[in-house]
Amino acid sequence: MEDQPLTLPLPKHGTRARKRLTGCTCVPCSRRTGAVEDGYLPRWSWEFLSRRVGPDRIRQWFDAEQIEEWRKIGLSDEEADMASLMLGLHPALVWQGWVEAGLDWPGAEADDVVG
Description:
Blueprint: H1 16-22, H2 27-30, H3 46-53, H4 55-61, H5 64-73, H6 77-86, H7 98-101
Helix pairs in contact: 3-4
């Protein structure tokens, strides 16, 4: 019998069960809110981007070194935003929880236009 990956019905993102079971560090699962200066950097999963647009299309825009880094540690908020927009999608269409994360860009004042 071949070794096949174990597929489990995973709890949804943003639950403690998902965090405990998979060690997920996405923003909803990590439950990080507000500006906290402790060096923590939540990451967005490469798998969601790869499934949504396909690895061939991603390779057209990004080099192998960048893609390998994303596979290992995921994408930062800025990388996720930039990558999805370059591939023609809003990040919320790629990552569940993007809108709920309520991202505030560091250094932006309340009245600043970001973008």
